[in-house]
Amino acid sequence: MDRRGFIRLTGMTSVVGLLGKPILNAAGLLRPGEALTNKPPIVGKRWAMVIDTRKCLEKEGCRDCINACHHIHNVPEFDNAKDEIKWIWKEKYEQAFPEQENEYIEDGLKEKSVLVLCNHCDNPPCVRVCPTQATWKREDGIVMMDWHRCIGCRYCMAACPYGSRSFNWRDPRPFIKEIVTDFPTRTRGVVEKCTFCEERLAKGLIPACVEACPEKALIFGDLEDPQSELRELLRVHFSFRRKTNLGTQPELYYIV
Amino acid sequence: MLEKALIGDKKYWSWILFLMAVMAVGFFFYLRQLTYGLGITGLSRDVTWGFYIAQFTFLVGVAASAVMVVLPYYLHNFKIFGKSTILGEFLAISAVTMCMLFILIDLGQPMRALNMVLHPSPKSVLFWDMIVLNGYLLLNVVISHVTLDAERKSIAPPSWIKPVIILSIPWAISIHTVTAFIYSGLGSRPFWFTAILTPRFLASAFASGPALLILLVFIIKKLTKYDPGREPVQKLAVIVTYAMALNIFFVLLEVFTAFYSGNPEHMTSFQYLFVGLDHHSRLVPWIWTSVILGIGALVLLINPRTRKNDILLIMACLSVFISIWIDKGIGMVVAGFIPSPLGHITEYWPTLPESLITLSIYAFGLLLVTIFYKIALSVREETSA
After folding, report:
1. Residue B124 and residue A85: Cβ atoms within 8 Å?
2. Do A190 and B108 touch (CB under 8 A)?
3. A160 touches chain B (CB under 8 A)
4. Residues A86-143: pLDDT tens digits?
5. How many Å apart are CA A41 and CA B15, to the nearest integer?
6. A151 → chain B, closest CA residue
7. N or C: which terminal CB in chain A sees fewer CB atoms within 10 Å?
8. What percent of chain B has pLDDT over 90?
9. Per-residue model confidence (pLDDT) at position A26
10. What does pLDDT average to over chain B?
């Protein structure tokens, strides 16, 4: 491209940048709350989540949070378990909480499912073992992934005690139902997982799963803010976390 | 000295061509793996490491062969090993090269492998494994080159090489230790999360490496005029005996701790391996083959009369090698993933492309061993002539 062409192009992009949002909105290209919001970013000191399984179980078979997350993050859908990729999903109660084994547990609870996702541990083993720092813990506690640095050694998958990580065993793009353009798709050979919707927090939006839940069973908040709804819930309810004996300090709290 | 590898009879060249053909087949399938992704293997979301990483783990052990001849010779002045150190070092070079190739082909994004150097992460055991493996390779390349060159010129090796050789001894221990740490440092995998894993790695390494070396010496004796003599082979056999006895003892210690305590997390992987779990029992016949071969070999090795019989010794060494190959090259790595952290049982078995790629790396390793041994033996024939 010559110099004049370059100037023309940069000029045009800045005009589109200025008028972009109203134009895109008018054209109906933006779904509500998806991109280019003017909201200030949501910041916290230590992000965490409460999962109220009682509320979650109100609507059995509901997959709203899973669908919302997997859609906006371009998570592919394979028909075979071998290639499977998932960021948030449901597991049987005793599989999610093996240390709560109890043959005579409350009627029906055994067969019920609970939501599981990355625990965004305070002491994450996946971060410790990564040989390239492609996964790391942010100041605000979010365990992040760099899909461009990951070499695909899968050491983090061996280290995660919660099975929260997935690997792209093959090109995921043909298996994405509907590609969302403002979130990257991944290439084969890299690991991925939930990132607590850090891209939405930066735009002032709460995580997609929290927003999508019809029962308000998922509560996202700052652990270091004593006034937060999250802290209030933890104060008044009995809650527990997965596999705390391993010292990972998971930041997902379950109310049963 | 490399030119010596280019002179050989018809048998030598047919063997080289055969190995190259196997490599070519494996390379073709590796190109397919590059375009399709690691989904071409039998690996899955639950079993994320398999054949490739297991071969790497096993071959780190084979690389120990060097130290088991170098240590007695240099630290205990064990003269009869003098002629054999070079064979151990060349085997170590070939084994470590295979190890690195197995890691490389297991990467989802091999073109990004250098990220390990660009973004060094000292908290990761893999970072240290990269350092100790490359260091061990370098040490053995330098040592074997300098000592063989001196032998060719019929002069004593330079004095500075002695401390380098001494350094290679603890360094050999370090490659097993660090490789075991990759596994034993993970609280998420109870099957690996045990301090005995490191000594077990060392014991199995010091059994399988020298066992292979003994087999190679018998092959050399058959194919060439070179004969290192009975005594070094018999001494190596004693080393294999002690190491194999310790290896089996360590496995039994693990079994005791898991089953006497009754800790379900520690029992389930053993149950999967030895009796199967919820009707999943793909590895059961393999692990029992390993047990029978291991115990059978130990019986042959402990009895001095059978150990001193060449044919029985060859059988014992072959059994040790296969037994440990099954244990480390299949069982140990895969069982760590079964059951998964969420209690699911997903079985694993290598696919055909995966097996052929693995085979081709072994062919490459054998090619290296062939070329190196050819060089070493040619130098020896020349100097003795």
Report:
1. no
2. yes
3. yes
4. 999 999 988 898 888 787 888 777 788 999 999 999 999 999 999 999 999 999 999 9
5. 66
6. B109
7. N
8. 81
9. 47
10. 93
**H/E stretch holding A94:** helix A93-96
Locate the chain B residue with the closest alpha carbon to A153. Answer: B107
Whole domain around residue B51: which residue ranges?
2-384
- Optimal mutation site among B106, B114, B121, B183, interface A, most CBs of chain A within 10 A: B121
Structural domain count, chain B: 1
User: How does pLDDT run across A136-195, given as a tens digit for each residue?
Assistant: 999 999 999 999 999 999 999 999 999 999 999 999 999 999 999 999 999 999 999 999
The amino acid occupying position B344 is H
Contact of A175 with chain B, judged by CB distance below 8 Å, is answered with no
Q: Is the pLDDT of residue A27 over 50?
A: no
- Helix ranges, chain B (H): 10-36, 51-62, 65-75, 85-106, 115-118, 125-152, 161-184, 197-223, 230-261, 264-274, 284-302, 304-307, 310-326, 332-335, 352-384
Among residues B256, B267, B240, B258, which one has the least CA distance to residue B324? B240
Q: What is the largest CA-CA distance in chain B?
A: 67
Condensed to tens digits (0 to 9), the pLDDT of residues B352-381 reads: 999 999 999 999 999 999 999 999 988 888
Q: Which of A79, A82, A244, A246 should be substituted to probe chain B, the one whose Cβ sees the most B Cβ atoms within 10 Å? A: A82
- Which chain B residues touch A249 with a CB distance below 8 Å? none
Give which of B328, B277, B310 is closest to B63, Cα–Cα: B328
Cβ pairs A/B, distance under 8 A: 138
Does the structure show a pLDDT above 80 at A45? yes
We find that the CATH architecture of domain A47-255 is 2-Layer Sandwich (3.30)
Q: Does B127 touch chain A (CB under 8 A)?
A: yes
Q: What 3-state class would DSSP assign to A119? A: coil
Distance from CA of B102 to the nearest CA of A (A): 11
Q: Which residues of B touch A126 (CB under 8 A)?
A: none
Average pLDDT rounded to a whole number, residues A70-99: 93
Q: What is the CATH number of the domain that holds B30?
A: 1.20.1630.10
A 197-236 → B contacts, CB under 8 A: none
